[in-house]
Specification:
Elements lengths: L4 H15 L6 E7 L12 E7 L4 H15 L5 E7 L5 H16 L2 H13 L8 H10 L4 H8 L2 H16 L7 E4 L3 E5 L2 H20 L7
Parallel strand pairs: 2-3
Antiparallel strand pairs: 1-5, 2-4, 4-5
Length: 214
């Protein structure tokens, strides 16, 4: 039986709601990541958000996270990693993230992607549909298609899923600090407050003023 466009989108979003309970929806402020994961720059404090455009919680969290990122000091680096949980639909929107990043359209269109999927209920889970959407938004069609199907983008998606496994991510959105701590919290605001405290903790450790590394 073939899904209609509306049914496909509804099913994909319903799947998102089913598997995307926030990883930090817990009372504990944080859990240690074992083993500690490497970061790109030891001099910086790295914060990673694991997410998916298909996740309704990620859509709700994104405006708060964007505002929070804008307030961070220069020694804090925030990375976003779209993951798939092994679902083809989420693989396509993970590829969409990296494609827009490479074409230079990510900053301009990221909130529009969330809006299209979760507010307008558009089907951005299939390549043809998401390509048409991106072109309507002003992205060059040839450049988008070539980038979307490139080995580089596919490698980035695979690497994101490998990172999620290494960090033991069970749901999204999930925040991790410096490869050491998976953030907890009772709600979005609480988790950002805890992230702030963990950044201060790591900053102290790097400067030699915090707890000694074990």
């Amino acid at each position: 039986m073939k899904f209609s466009r509306r049914a496909f989108v509804a099913a994909a979003v319903a799947f998102g709601a089913a598997v995307s309970l926030p990883s930090f929806a817990q009372n504990a402020p944080y859990t240690a990541i074992v083993p500690v994961q490497p970061t790109e720059d030891a001099a910086k404090v790295e914060v990673v958000e694991f997410f998916s455009y298909g996740c309704p919680h990620c859509a709700d969290f994104n405006p708060l996270l964007t505002s929070w990122v804008a307030k961070q000091q220069g020694d804090v680096v925030v990375k976003k990693v779209p993951i798939t949980f092994g679902r083809a639909a989420w693989a396509n929107i993970a590829k969409l993230y990296y494609t827009l990043e490479i074409t230079g359209d990510l900053h301009r269109l990221e909130s529009d992607v969330f809006k299209a999927i979760h507010v307008e209920r558009q089907n951005l889970f299939e390549e043809k549909a998401l390509t048409e959407w991106a072109v309507k938004k002003g992205v060059d069609a040839k450049k988008f298609t070539e980038t979307f199907n490139s080995f580089g983008v596919m490698s980035k998606v695979k690497r994101g899923d490998q990172m999620a496994q290494a960090y033991k991510i069970q749901g999204v959105p999930a925040l991790a600090v410096d490869g050491k701590y998976l953030v907890g919290g009772k709600d979005f605001n609480d988790t950002l407050a805890i992230t702030d405290s963990l950044i201060a903790k790591v900053r102290g450790e790097k400067s030699g003023k915090g707890p000694a590394k074990k």
